[in-house]
Specification:
The complex is a heterodimer of chains A (237) and B (324).
Chain A (H helix, E strand, L loop, with lengths): L30 H22 L6 H21 L1 H8 L3 H4 L1 H25 L6 H10 L1 H18 L5 H5 L1 H8 L1 H16 L5 H29 L11
Chain B lengths: L8 H9 L3 H27 L32 H4 L14 H5 L9 E6 L5 E4 H6 L4 E8 L4 E11 H8 L7 E6 L19 E5 H5 L4 E6 L2 E2 L9 E3 L12 E7 L6 H5 L23 E4 L6 E2 L7 H4 L13
Parallel strand pairs in B: 1-10, 4-11
Antiparallel strand pairs in B: 1-2, 3-4, 4-7, 5-6, 5-10, 7-8, 7-9, 11-12
The chains are: A mainly alpha (237), B alpha+beta (324).
Chain lengths: 237, 324
């Protein structure tokens, strides 16, 4: 897990003339803040679109759809970190995983908020009963709502200290929930589409591939270890 | 990751010893900008569906007399720009902005309509001739989409009943089947097998003879835009919007109930009748409320879309939960 905020290189220009004290140079300065700002770009564009009327004739539905797709896309991106490391050996994807996950949670929360507003949250005739009815009666909503609920503990324990508090093993187990959440997200998207399932299918295939890569590589490595070929294998971590 | 052999490490150690702050800053700034562009741009491409531009206005075909009563919903008419850029017309694509973007590929003249089936004499008639058979009239109808949104549309056209009578049905005619144009050149969406093409819809003949059932050739006093179903479409305001088949090339009177496109695609979700009914939910969402395009909140959906006085008697004795 990486810290998204302090970049060791960002203050470099201030000490231009003097010899710089020896310190570690990050190869990826700017990456973390870039992810955060890049991930917030769609939100800024949505606000801009809302101002200019570019959300179309049914802005509520447009926001609903867009926040949902963004959440799923970011969640799947965060899932790509480990397979990328396994395939390429890169470690930088793992450093931005937390930021991606939290951005996914942000858009999922906006998605739920738009749904609640649509159910009348701002109208004054908001009925918790209608929401509960919806969540209980319609599998499409049940699945989506469950996915969001399961993201909450993950978001809450994504901060420094949580790993220590929970212990690494428990923290890891908890965060494996994300596989389940992604599956629920894809099913929810699939069910929400009236007929053309191309997009949910693509998201589903990408997510399935990423999950499969983990399994394949895990299998591959454990076989290597068991076979006593550890000498040639890339050392772990 | 210690892939590099040890003899290569001094080089990187050296560069760590004398970092160039300027270069480092530029490098970070570059990574930052690249990441923002890649992630922000990528997410935008994935998720943002741009709206359609306003199209050139079709020709005026004139305002006609407007019958009052149920033919003139007193609700505020949906702005033309929204009524023509937010459409479901899968022949042009599944996104709501696709029809307005793609409609230029549709050629509505010359256009003929085949009138056949259980009629005394089948015929194929040019659209302009067909249109000249009837005086055109304006009708302001509510339109409720099965997806939970609604509009108020100022159609221009003629009652379907007149056309049915003109077709001179035989005694066996029980249903009216409508077929849309099948042409992948004009309808690029038909290259996708998302629905079975051509699009088909049907009504019971007594539904078709109801004075509310309407054939539209215009909108807002102008020729119907391609995205709204030019040059000839069905409007049955007490039914969900998908019953209002667009760009009709054939009308057939039949003895048996015809198959309809959406009931083939998902028989558990879209029935033959598709009457607007707030008490019968779609399996995936409630039909109790709707969003009028142009409004942010929702309003309660009315039985038969508010046309119960005119059409409820058509369905007396029919279980509308079963016959949805």
């Amino acid at each position: 897990m990486s810290k998204a905020t302090p970049s060791p290189t960002s203050s470099g220009a201030a000490t231009a003339a003097r010899p710089v004290p020896r310190r570690k140079v990050s190869k990826f300065g700017g990456l973390g803040p870039g992810i955060v700002v890049g991930g917030l770009v769609p939100m800024a564009v949505m606000l801009w679109d809302a101002q200019t009327g570019a959300l179309g004739a049914n802005p509520v539905q447009r926001l609903q759809l867009q926040t949902g797709v963004l959440s799923l896309a970011l969640l799947i991106l965060s899932l790509a970190a480990t397979p990328l490391r396994l395939v390429t050996g890169w470690t930088w994807p793992a450093r931005v995983r937390k930021a991606l996950g939290l951005l996914a949670f942000l858009y999922a929360t906006l998605h739920v908020l738009v749904y609640l507003v649509d159910k009348g949250l701002l109208n004054g005739d908001f009925g918790l009963a209608t929401v509960v009815d919806d969540v209980v009666k319609r599998p499409f909503i049940t699945v989506g709502f469950t996915a969001w609920l399961l993201l909450i503990p993950l978001a809450l324990t994504s901060f420094k200290g949580s790993v220590k508090k929970l212990g690494f093993a428990r923290w890891t187990t908890l965060h494996k929930l994300v596989y389940f959440v992604v599956a629920l997200g894809v099913v929810h998207y699939w069910w929400g589409v009236k007929k053309d399932h191309t997009e949910p299918l693509i998201y589903g295939l990408v997510a399935a591939t990423l999950l499969a890569l983990r399994v394949i590589f895990k299998d591959f490595r454990s076989k290597k270890k068991a076979g006593g070929m550890g000498k040639t294998a890339t050392p772990e971590n | 990751m210690t892939k590099l052999p040890p003899e290569q490490t001094p080089k990187s150690a050296e560069s760590e010893k004398t970092p160039n702050p300027r270069r480092e800053f530029l490098r970070s700034a570059g990574i930052f900008t690249g990441t923002v562009a890649a992630l922000g741009g990528g997410l935008e491409l994935l998720s943002r569906k741009p709206g359609a531009e306003a199209q050139a206005l079709p020709d005026l075909i004139g305002q006609a007399k407007r019958p009052l009563g149920p033919y003139d919903a007193k609700d505020a008419v949906t702005p033309y720009e929204q009524a023509t850029t937010y459409n479901n017309f899968y022949e042009f694509g599944t996104d709501k902005a696709d029809p307005a973007r793609m409609a230029a590929s549709l050629r509505t003249r010359p256009w003929t309509v085949k009138l056949d089936g259980e009629v005394k004499k089948a015929q194929t008639v040019d659209i302009d001739t067909l249109q000249s058979w009837f005086p055109l009239e304006d009708r302001i109808y509510r339109m409720r989409c099965v997806e939970g949104w609604s509009m108020v549309m100022p159609w221009l056209g003629f009652p379907l009943a007149g056309l049915i009578r003109r077709m001179d049905p035989t005694g066996k005619a029980k249903y009216v089947q409508f077929t849309s144009l099948l042409d992948t050149k004009q309808f690029p969406g038909q290259r996708s097998s998302v629905l079975t093409w051509p699009y088909m819809e049907a009504l019971r003949i007594d539904e078709a003879l109801n004075p509310l059932a309407f054939m539209a050739v215009g909108l807002n006093g102008r020729a119907l835009p391609g995205q709204n179903g030019a040059p000839l479409r069905l409007v049955v305001p007490w039914k969900y919007g998908f019953k209002g088949i667009k760009s009709i090339v054939q009308i057939t009177l039949t003895e048996k109930q015809p198959k309809t496109t959406w009931s083939i695609a998902a028989p558990d979700e879209y029935g033959f009748y598709a009457n607007v009914n707030p008490k019968v939910d779609h399996p995936r969402w409630s039909q109790a409320t709707e969003r009028r395009i142009g409004e942010l909140g929702r309003r309660p959906t009315l039985m038969f879309n508010g046309y119960a006085d005119q059409v409820a008697s058509l369905y007396s004795g029919l279980d509308l939960k079963k016959n949805f």
